[in-house]
């Protein structure tokens, strides 16, 4: 699987384009904005986008979803249904943060824990990881040892929990019980910033390092 990261919006959110190199089919993960940039990248790679995947309903992760879905005539999968209230507020989120107007939409497939997503020869497992938002999910490739985690965890930090329906302890539980069992050798792409591994964060992350949680 080839992965191209396209930072979008003023928040520099990591939109990921996942490509099955055998079939040339692709999935766009978290298209938060900058539609032209995303579509230019797709065209440059000469791939066929077959679906859009969403980790959660915050503006910088899904603001361009409705328009891209219509333009490319592809379905939207994710997030968990508990984040639909965020998607319903996309117009208000846009006004609040001074972003271009975004339209709300309804996912073609809400995702739950242990669901499977496929495109081309690629298979991803879904993990429900609430805390940052109640309906946050992550996508995991066992073959690639790669996780796309949205705003659950970052290199050296974790997601905010001061938004409506966020909860700090729930987020910590999601990280420890859903992410750590995937393996220390798993590389993750966060919603913002640089990639890391779960093993590195278990050693050094000031919020969820083993030494912090076990003290």
Essential attributes:
215 residues; alpha+beta; Metallo-beta-lactamase, Chain A; six-stranded mixed β-sheet; five-stranded mixed β-sheet; 8 helices; 13 strands; globular
Q: Any low-confidence stretches, pLDDT <50, length ≥5? A: none
Q: Which radius of gyration do the C-alpha atoms yield?
A: 16 Å
The total domain count is 1
Largest sheet: 6 strands, mixed
Describe the overall structure.
The protein is an alpha+beta fold. It has one domain (2-213): 4-Layer Sandwich (Metallo-beta-lactamase, Chain A), CATH 3.60.15. The chain has helices at 35-45, 59-62, 65-72, 84-87, 90-97, 168-179, 198-204, 210-213; strands at residues 2-8, 13-19, 25-29, 48-53, 76-77, 116-119, 122-128, 137-141, 146-150, 153-154, 157-158, 187-190, 196-197. It has a 6-stranded mixed sheet with strand order 6-7-8-9-12-13. A 5-stranded mixed sheet has the order 1-2-3-4-5, covered by helices on one side. The protein has a two-stranded antiparallel sheet with strand order 10-11. The protein starts with a strand and ends with a helix. The relative contact order is 0.14.
């Amino acid at each position: 699987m080839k992965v191209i990261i396209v930072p979008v919006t003023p928040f520099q959110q990591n939109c990921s384009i996942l490509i099955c190199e055998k079939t040339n089919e692709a999935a766009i993960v978290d298209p938060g904005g900058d539609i032209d940039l995303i579509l230019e990248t797709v065209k440059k790679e000469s791939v066929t986008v077959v679906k859009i995947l969403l980790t959660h309903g915050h503006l910088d992760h899904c603001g361009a979803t409705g328009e891209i879905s219509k333009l490319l005539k592809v379905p939207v999968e994710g997030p968990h249904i508990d984040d639909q209230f965020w998607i319903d507020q996309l117009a208000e989120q846009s006004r609040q943060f001074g972003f271009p107007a975004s339209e709300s939409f309804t996912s073609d497939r809400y995702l739950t824990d242990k669901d499977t997503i496929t495109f081309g020869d690629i298979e991803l497992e879904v993990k429900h990881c609430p805390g940052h938002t109640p309906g946050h999910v992550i996508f995991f490739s066992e073959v690639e040892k790669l996780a796309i985690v949205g705003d659950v965890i970052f290199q050296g930090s974790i997601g905010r929990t001061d938004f409506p329906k966020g909860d700090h302890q729930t987020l910590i539980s999601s990280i420890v019980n859903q992410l750590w069992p995937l393996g220390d050798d798993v590389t993750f792409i966060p919603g913002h910033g640089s990639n890391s591994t779960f093993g590195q964060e278990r050693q050094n992350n000031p919020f969820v390092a083993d030494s912090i949680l076990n003290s």
